[in-house]
Amino acid sequence: MLHFPQFDPIAFHIGPLAVHWYGLMYLLGFALTWVLGKWRIDHGKTDLTLKDLEDIIFYSVLGVVIGGRLGYVLFYQPSAYLAHPLSIFYLWQGGMSFHGGLLGVITVMYLFARHKRRTLLEIGDFVAPLIPLGLAAGRLGNFINGELWGRPTTLPWGMVFPETHDGIPRHPSQLYEMGLEGFALFALLWWFARKPRPVGQISAVFLMGYGTFRFLVEFTRQPDAFLGLLIDGLSMGQLLSLPMIVAGAIIFAWSAKRSNRAPKP
């Protein structure tokens, strides 16, 4: 049995301003996106420019924040926020949804793609391998905050989180997610994208990979107290991940079929 290391969620102060580790993890995630994107541009993996990359990151920040917040409101606590709509803007109280953030990013990428006279999948294929390390940073932020802990376990690495107030060892599910949704997904996508692929397939692998990893990890993650388990004992995270897997499989199959029909040079 392990005990959660009592991290101070505040990394440092700038005058009266407290800089939290979680916010720094967001910054680290976007910084890693820039570094990896620049590498792909410099190595001829795309004909997008560095200016395009910086525009993508800027719009993605908006998509993550707005989509993540609205996704949490709509998917997790719609009645609570309907009763107190102004609390939607209280971002400092927490409450973000990955799936909402993904929809937000897809929306801004669609608008960016139209502006550049590209397809959404073309932009998605460039962006997808850049995302997982940012997700890993975010999950590390969750762990430092001691939030989103796992279900009880008897495994030797079970960890007691003080915020649960029950002294029960639990799965450090934040670290599982960091490993699977972050490092493992990054390795898979970076390997898959090393060669030219039919348009849409890299995006499809991201959707299937994240959806599968998240679905599996959710079996170890404590369900939200205000929701519990839902249909057939599945969590909200699992129910939201299933459409990702299905959409990814459809896109991959469509892309392969379209590629096979393309005339050979």
From TrEMBL:
Keywords: Cell membrane, Lipoprotein, Membrane, Transferase, Transmembrane, Transmembrane helix. GO terms for molecular function: phosphatidylglycerol-prolipoprotein diacylglyceryl transferase activity. GO terms for biological process: lipoprotein biosynthetic process. It is an enzyme of class 2 (transferase). It is a multi-pass membrane protein. Signal peptide: none annotated. Its EC number is 2.5.1.145. Catalyzes the transfer of the diacylglyceryl group from phosphatidylglycerol to the sulfhydryl group of the N-terminal cysteine of a prolipoprotein, the first step in the formation of mature lipoproteins. Belongs to the Lgt family. This is Phosphatidylglycerol--prolipoprotein diacylglyceryl transferase. It comes from Candidimonas nitroreducens.
